[in-house]
Design goal:
mainly alpha, about 90 residues
Length: about 90
């Protein structure tokens, strides 16, 4: 006995709605990750620029390398978090 046409249409509609919702979740998460990466890079750049304006060599060096660490580590951990969430959702 084959399933009726109405049942197949209902299943197709439910799967299409789930696909649209999954794509929306993936795009929202990637947009959030992109904004987080921009924020971390802006914070790192701000620290690096501040290191150029300070008059104390020690504080400038700390701010410079701190800015490098903040910017790079923030971007890396944001991307790793996005990958982990994508794996959990089944995106890739």
């Amino acid at each position: 006995m084959s399933p009726s046409r109405e049942l197949l249409d209902a299943i197709a509609a439910r799967e299409a709605a789930a696909h649209v919702e999954a794509n929306r979740d993936r795009r929202r998460d990637l947009a959030r990750t992109a904004l987080a990466c921009l924020g971390w890079s802006a914070l790192g750049i701000a620290c690096i620029l501040w290191s150029g304006h300070t008059t104390n060599y020690t504080v400038g060096t700390i701010a410079f390398y701190g800015g490098l660490g903040i910017g790079n580590a923030g971007i890396i951990f944001s991307l790793l978090g996005a990958y982990r969430r994508g794996e959990k959702r089944g995106d890739w």
